[in-house]
Amino acid sequence: MKLSISLLALSALPLIAADTTADLPFASKQIPEIVSLPDRTEDFRKQIAESGGTLLVPPGVHRITGTLEFVLSSQHSALVRPEGGTATLVMDGAGPAIRIVGSHEGRADPKDFKPATFNERMPTIEGIEIVGNHPEADGIELARTFQPIISKVAVRWCRHGIHLIERNRNLVVSAVHLYENSGVGIYYDDVDFHQSNISHSHISYNRGGGIVVRDGNVRNIQINGCDIEANMPQDNTPTKAANILFDLSGSPEDPKKSVAEVAIIGCTLQHSSSHGGKKHKEIAPGGANLRILGKAIRPINSISVIGNLMSDTSLNVDLQHCTEIVLSGNSFFTSNPDNLHLTHCKRITVTGNTFNPRSIVRAGRIIIDQCSDSLFTNNTLRGLIAPDGALQVKDSARIIFADNILTESSGGIQTTGTHDIIMRDWIINDLPATP
Q: CA-CA distance, 82 to 162, in Å (whole number)?
């Protein structure tokens, strides 16, 4: 009997861009005296020019209306930090509060470097807060930089928190708070970027996504020990946004735009769905914790997702046109309605994970559609109430399902159009009796 599987109709939904029209909070609500603050833009630009690339921000709140730009070809690197005490920049104009522009054009290999580029090494931004007071204000923008470091920085009420464009190499982002921005927390925007480490940071409530890679040529992202939450609309707006999103769907015929070699380890990725609020029946319908949208001509590949907690989105993990992906040792819970979608994927390993809605009733389906050459092993599935099958396999081949435990669920395993499938050594208990 042919099984009809209802997939989330995500492909027809528009991508969520930065919402510049919504009634978002701006700095004037937190800092009522902002209208009386002087414009310090030219003062700070003069300090940058006279110091050769150093901006020491005095304690207090400082309003700027234009970008503070560091052109590294005319100076030795760059440094932005407080002069002493706490310092806040209020961006009261369009564009990034801070822009660093280097001259690096090659790879990270030392043989690709021009001697002058080494003088631009390690531009550093640390210890400051950036607050937006304009719908097109961004926090930090990097172009053609080498070894940039962003640490102990907070960005709130801007559009994008950290915007990466053109080409960059060897980024370190640590101990940052990117919170409640209308666009993306960390945005790899059609950028050529290899070697970036993102660690021990809070990236939350950014409406357009938490960490987003869109097109470009991107390699070697390490995301470690971060709390990445609710990075999607906080209302009933349908969305493709995700806490972590890799998206090549905008360049389906271009093999040069690709993403590979990523590790996502020891993070919490969750919200919004159940805990997004009580005003709407659904919060961010279609949103995901991890969404990887590859393409047939150049699938996204070589990604390890290990030891993470993922919960409370429409879909925990959505993989499309991917190869060589490992999901291991993760805890998936409270998805509304689904845990995992694999579509047009090859060589996927799903092993040693737990799928358990905990105290909230959820369908929790796992849907594998048009996939091959993969493993689904040593997982535990509990309390998944989808009556048409907790695990649904459609039009797939050469997949081993072994040594799994399925209990206390409303449906078992349903397959249609499959061949060369191995199902062995399952423990299945407490399912409804078959009529």
A: 19
* Cα 290 to Cα 305: distance, rounded to the nearest angstrom: 10
Calpha distance 82→87 (Å, rounded): 6
- For the whole prediction, is pTM greater than 0.85? yes
Q: Which residues contact 112 (CB under 8 A, 6 or more apart)?
A: 106
pLDDT at position 434, please?
52
Strand 60-64 and strand 87-91: pairing? parallel
Please give the Cα distance from 426 to 409 (Å, whole number). 14
Could you give the CA distance from residue 76 to residue 79 in angstroms, rounded to a whole number? 10
Query: Per the omega criterion (within 30 degrees of 0), is the bond before 337 cis?
Result: yes
Predicted local distance difference test score (pLDDT) of residue 321? 97
Half-sphere CA count of 146, side-chain side, radius 13 A: 23
Region class of 248: left (phi > 0), else alpha (psi between -120 and 50), else beta: alpha
With 0-12 CB in 10 A as exposed, 13-18 as middle and 19+ as buried, what is 21? exposed
pLDDT at 176: 98
| Tokens 């992906």 -> residue | 325
Q: Extract the residue ranges of the chain whose pLDDT is less than 70.
A: 1-25, 106-108, 274-280, 433-435
Radius of gyration of the chain (CA): 23
Q: Which residues lie closer than 8 Å to 272 by C-beta, 6 or more apart?
A: 230, 232, 233, 234, 283, 284, 287, 312, 313
Distance of CA 168 to the CA centre of its chain: 18
Q: What local confidence, expressed as pLDDT, does residue 149 receive?
A: 98
Strand partners, 227: 202, 268
